[in-house]
Amino acid sequence: MESPALASSTEIFATYPAFLPLLTEGETLFSWSARYHRLSGNALARQSSIQLFGDRRAGLRPDFPSHLQQLVEITRGLIGDAETLAYERTLFGFFAPFQNTQGASNVLKQMRGTSVEKVKSALGILPSRVGAFFPLKFCQDCIQDDLKKYSVSRWHLEHQWPSVWICRKHHRMLHALKREYQPRDLRRWLLPEDVTAEEWTGSATSSAVTKSKLLWITELSTHFAQLRGQHFDHQLLRYTYLLRAKEREWLFTDGSVKLALVRQLFLKYYKEMDDIPGFEVVKGVQSEHAGMLGLLMRQFDWRRHPVKHILLIAFLFESVVEFDAVYERVRQVHVQGGTDALEEMVGESWKSELKRLVEVEHKSLSSAASTIGIPLCVAIRVCKQEGIAYQRRSHVVNTVLGEEILEMIIQGLSRVEILQKTGIKKTLLKDLMARKPVLRDAWRIKDFERRRDVYRVNFLELIEQFRGVPIKKLRTVPGNGVSWLYRNDREWLTQNLPCM
Ligand SMILES: [Zn+2]
After folding, report:
1. 379/454 same-domain check
2. Residue 270 Cα, ligand 1 centroid: separation in angstroms?
3. Is this model's pTM higher than 0.90 or not?
4. Domains in the chain, number
5. What is the rounded (10 degree) CA torsion for 150, 152, 156, 162?
């Protein structure tokens, strides 16, 4: 069916360069094809698509066009080979570094071939909340510049990357074609100059701070999109994020993320930017599991939308050089010592301290954990891994520690004192006391007397300090203890009330 078309295109290109426009710097393949269509004088876009791609629709896809091999054959390699076109003239270059080698070559194969139906699912962008819809975007000043320079406007590749919403040259917010006007198997082969005001989304005026962040995101995106043939290892990316977080003191000493803190800072960083198309994922960070933050920093998964990575990298790092350096360091450590070395790098040598606190100082595990600054569950896990014999509640009773606690109870030390000295939990102390009711009752009497004495002294000081002040007013002084005395020591209170 398509052979007649091929024949006709061969004839056309026999007269090259008359009909083959120059592929200009930073221009997308879609843009170049649209300009070809304009020059060709063809009435229908599909005629031009057939002449270039050997397919009636292939060239009309602005994101991931198919039939690239055929295009290269038809143009006799004059605009580059299929792989270069995919990397440098389509959205593929933006997604490729975040794919593994196999995933990237799978997508390339589809783009070279005749069907790109499975490209988006291969890239893992269908289930993503960032979305698989990429509106055509443009800068109004760039249109003017291009019209002056080329007498025609162009779609700039850099503007099409899903994380880019500002023009680096003009510092102007980009406009996007509204979804309903997005070319999709259509008759119209759009160039930016053809877009009318009602067809594009209004560009929100952004603050200088937001603009500088968007420029930073654009710089990062540009850097990544040029990493042809390089693929990030998602596990190493995760450690890169963790190491950077550690430098910023956003990790607990065991290497886990202080998620509540990081979440708050992340949301603050992207305040007023979470309505930008594709950046809505920022909102998900408010959820229980911290959305993309949790996914990127806590879980291993090789397939996350590049926009998510870029948003996190922009938040964590201040320059491309800095990011590259940390990633390279992580890569080196991994080469030399594997995942264990990476764990060691983000964590700290606190395990021996845990062992000492628990085994030598007989601290409870929770007390040791809070002394070190790690969650209890991590302490339990490590004790099990390292064979540290920590004392479980029921085991305390017949140990040296148990004896010590009993002695303190007999002496009538306050609850606070006992807990501080032993590092045990309140509930454990309660349990221990429940096992010795006689001791407990004796302790309660002593405890009551001690507290009562404290309240009495406190009260006498209070009325001395506020001489002549009515008792009603004294009750408003913080820590006055009058209510306690009224409930528990009324006789004494009545005797000692100041004469009015
Ligand atoms: Zn511009």
Report:
1. no
2. 23
3. no
4. 4
5. 170
